[in-house]
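Following up on my earlier thread - several people asked me to post the actual chain instead of describing it. Fair enough. Here it is, all 256 residues.
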Amino acid sequence: MPAPLNSFKQALINGERLIGCWTSFAEAVTAEIMGSAGFDWLVIDGEHAPNDIRSIRDQLMALSASPTHPVVRVPVGDAALIKMVLDAGSQTILVPMVESAEQARDLVRACRYPPEGVRGVGAMASRATMYGTIPDYIPTADAQICLLVQVENRAGLAALDDILKVDGIDGVFIGPADLSTDMGYQGNSAAPEVRAAIADAIARTLAAGKAPGILGVTDESSQAFQDMGAQFQAVGIDVMLLTQAARALSAKWKAK
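Reply from S.P.:
Thanks for posting it. Predicted structure:
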């Protein structure tokens, strides 16, 4: 029995447009709720949310009964962290702050078993193989791992063409908040100069045959990014969805 087919990776290869959302509560029950909402994919955020390997594992388990594909964002592109997340059962990894082709190649190696990579061989005792019930996992796993890299500063944009040439990079995610701040606009991703840089990055990614992705937190930004050609697009953050709805409900009834 081989490693399970990565439906998210296959959809990107097929050119399908995928709509997702961020999950930042770091709780299995909220991940399960979000998995029932109909999104194509969800990010389990290990960079800015209070996640550890156990909470990531629990959210992967919570989403396993859902058609929604989990994407795990690690806090940093460290091979040891990536190994743990892969062994916990994630097939799609998102790595922040990628700034060079050399860094991208190191990330590819972290996701692959020897001789092409450096991933440690211990998955037969982990959730990735459903505790040894997928006997052919190790020779088939590499082909089902989807590696997404975040390009979110001027250094990353300058190296983007070289990053896109790295075999094993499946998609490039543009981080508008970090990029706009690095460009001097303090998180204002709607600034014309920032929007132009994002549009150029998406166009270059598409031209290289890779999938471009991005996060928008307003209808206006999400529509703008979709019009630019974003293929895998997050359109909200669970914490923001709750706070906005709760505050609106409170204000509505307190005003009566």
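The longest helix spans residues 238-254. That should answer part of your original question.
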